[in-house]
Amino acid sequence: MDRIVIFDLDDTLVHSNAVREAFACVARERGIDEALMTRTLDTLPGRPAQDIFECLGLGPDAAQAATTRFLARLDELNGEVPTVPYADAHATLDALAARGCTLALSTGSPPERARRILENEGWDAFEVVLGSTETCRKGRAHYEQMNAATPDPRWTHRAITVGDSPADMRLGAEYGVPIRIGIDRDGDPRALLAAGATHIVRGLADILRIIPT
């Protein structure tokens, strides 16, 4: 069976201080309490920037303006702060590609940043790369895009989602993804399990023993 593995990007395949610093910059500029911003990011990992700003109380227009500023600052920081792949990312992706898995990326980052990271790391096995824009944000819109592009209406039954965010787990459950792997590097998987994770791992390499060959 051809398996489709849907990966998150930040804090799943790569890590960088650029995202947090870009959020902190917008918080300072708009008078948002930085401690509240940090707590919100910890509570809602992997969510698109506009969702974060709306959760902080900004209206839709203000949240969109804050998102635009966040993305601009993130683009600046990406040239200053390196994005680093997790140590087991390359070997894990190579192993899945060798098994014939279809690799997909669904991220809250802009598609340009996502493609740049994949290119820099040499991760050319990804057949689907979905970033977030003003008109198509990570979440249901990404699944609907994959629905439209996939002739098999039951493709989600062959899918596996891998991410560090409870939102990734909930979305996978909503769309009938049977294997939902939560990456917990902090030692507290409760939020992932409550959101519907079927498996918890501490590192990427651990997913290889879960995904059927």
Round the Cα radius of gyration to an integer and report it: 17 Å
Q: How would you sum up the global shape?
A: globular
Order of helices and strands: EEHHHHEHEHEHEHEHE
Reading side by side through the largest sheet, how are the strands ordered?
A: 5-4-1-6-7-8
Query: Helix/strand-derived class?
Result: alpha/beta
Total beta-strand segments: 8
What is the overall number of helices?
A: 9
Termini Cα gap: 9 Å
Low-confidence stretches: none
In terms of quaternary structure, the protein is single chain
Q: Tell me roughly what share of residues is in helical segments.
A: 40-55%
Largest sheet: 6 strands, parallel
Strand content: 5-15%
Mean pLDDT: 90
Please give the structural blueprint.
Blueprint: E1 4-7, E2 14-15, H1 18-30, H2 34-43, H3 49-55, H4 60-78, E3 84-85, H5 89-98, E4 102-106, H6 111-121, E5 126-130, H7 140-149, E6 159-163, H8 166-174, E7 179-183, H9 190-194, E8 199-201
Helix pairs in contact: 1-2, 1-4, 3-4
What does this structure look like?
The radius of gyration is 17 Å and the shape is globular. The strands form 2 sheets. A 6-stranded parallel sheet has the order 5-4-1-6-7-8, sandwiched between helices. It contains 9 helices and 8 strands. The model has no long low-confidence stretch (mean pLDDT 90). The chain is α/β, with parallel strands linked by helices and 213 residues long. The N and C termini lie close together (9 Å).
